[in-house]
Amino acid sequence: MGVHIRRICATAGLVVFLVVSLGCPAGFAAESMRVMLLHSFGLDFKPWSEYAKSIRTELKQQSPWPLDIVEHSLITARFSNENPEAPFVEYLRAQYTEHPLDLIVSIGAPAAAFVQRHRPRLFATTPMVFTAVDQRRVQYSSLTANDAVVALRINYLSAFENILQVLPDTKDVIVVVGTSPIEKFWKEAIGKEVEPLANRIKLSWTDELSFEALLKQASALPPHTAIFWELMIVDAAGVVHEGDVPLTRLHAVATAPIFSYDESFFGNAIVGGPLLLAADTGRQTAAAAIRILNGEKPGEIRPPPVQFASPVFDWREMQRWGISENSLPPGSEIRFRNPTAWQQYRGYILAVIAAILIQSALIFWLLYEQGRRQRAEILARNTMSELTDVNRMATVGQLSASIAHEVRQPLAGIVAYAQAALRWLEKPNVEEVRESLNGIVSEGFRASEIITNLRAMFKHDVQEKTLVDINKLVSSVLALVVIDLQKHEIELQTQLDDRIPQVTGNQVQLQQVILNLVMNAIESMSSMETRVLRIKTELSRSNTVHVSIEDTGTGIKPSDVARVFKPMFTTKARGMGMGLSICQSIIENHAGRIWVSPGANGGSIFQFELPTTTSKIKQPELV
After folding, report:
1. Does domain 156-275+308-335 have CATH number 3.40.50.2300?
2. What angle do CA 494, 495, 499 make, to 5 degrees?
3. pLDDT band of 19, cuts 50, 70, 90
4. Whole-prediction pTM
5. 3-state secondary structure 83-148
6. CA 106 – CA 113 distance, rounded (Å)
7. Of 29, 188, 328, 600, which sees the most CB atoms within 10 A?
8. 31-153+277-306 and 355-460 have identical folds
9. For the chain, what are the domain ranges?
């Protein structure tokens, strides 16, 4: 059963393949369409070589089928004798009898005339497209139903009027033509068509000159002369010229501007004007060819003749001959204009200028900022020094009572011990007298120490750093504020770690920091019912000495935490706003950090850390 199904499927597939193959359009045929391009003079004779190139390109783009394009060229068109055509006819008959062509495209009038002469013998049924041929050269009476024409319309009068428009002073025009039959035809045609301009210009012809003689004449032309390039296929000496060589040589020596009507010569020699474009002819020729290959009757295909396009001029030739843009016809296009440096590199120039301006602005800004920073640093140093003195003097009022009390106590003790000693002298008791005198000495040393610390605090040269015992420093400060603590009924709680090492610093400055923080804490608790001052010292994990001063006062608003150490900021009614700023400056000058955080039961906790001799402190962070 499975074998029968497979056979049925195979048979059905074969039927489908045959149906599809037979029904496919020509575009899917195995064989290519055979198209012959027949040149009039040779494969490299301008302008027909440019027309052929354009036709090949357009055929390949427009054709839905594969094309086999072959090219042949006549040589008989260069001469008047047609007898040499016979061998070429035999060659073509032998070549295409068994493999007939699908289409012939003749390029130029000689090729078209050749096909018409030999059509019965060679191409009786082969359709043909005549192209790149002026209407005046087409033998319309000899056309058959198998012929289509894509003709040109060369408007010589317009071409010569273009010369007079761009160069109004022109008096003489040298028309370059050779001696081949087609060149003789055009000499006569040009003379007749330009006859209305006979009162303005004089025409001269080159058909009696060899090309070398033409070059010599062109190198010494008088002023107000122009050259019109028609054709130079065969010169008077019988020399054949093809490609760009003759026009290029003429352009190199000519002392007058060269004009022509065909785009093939534009771009390296002629000034320009209204031109016939090879692309227009190639496009129309390929369109007609595809229609014929698709089955349309050639005789019914009648495209309009290809005429001059909008004027185009070569800017380089205009500069060479002093032709002003104002003299060009309206709608003219100028090509090959050398852009100015601004036009060519405008983006780069703007980028460089912008970069220079930005760089200059950055340099001036950096110099300005550097100068401003230097001035600010100098001002800051001077201000800090002054503020330190101001802060010390402002603190004198607060410290005076404590210092007076402290000094008064040893003085009172000295007086008491002296009075006791006097009483014991009335009733001699040596031991009691000795004890009183020892007390006088002790109290004297205590008073001297207080006076020494006071003098050191207010000296201007307190920059020397020594080893400082933080615990002793805290104790000395508490001794100074003991009266304030008692006056405000503040409970003092201390937790001083005896294991903390000494730090390197200025004892007076660090004492000022602790004193300022303690006095701030005392003032913040003046209106509170619960008044507790907790001071704690310890060795932190980072091997630094950590000091915290906690109070149960009014605390600091969260919005003020970031500003509390800034100069001139204060929460006191009569505060100067410099105390905490100076404290921060002193701590940072000791490579430490200081910050504030809210207390667990209200109030604030001011903390600072100082490095030991084996530790490093990170940058401070406000909490």
Report:
1. yes
2. 140
3. very low
4. 0.53
5. CCHHHHHHHHHHHHCCCCCCEEEEECHHHHHHHHHHHHHHCCCCCEEEEEEEHHHCCHHHCCCCEE
6. 9
7. 328
8. no
9. 1-25, 31-153+277-306, 156-275+308-335, 355-460, 463-623
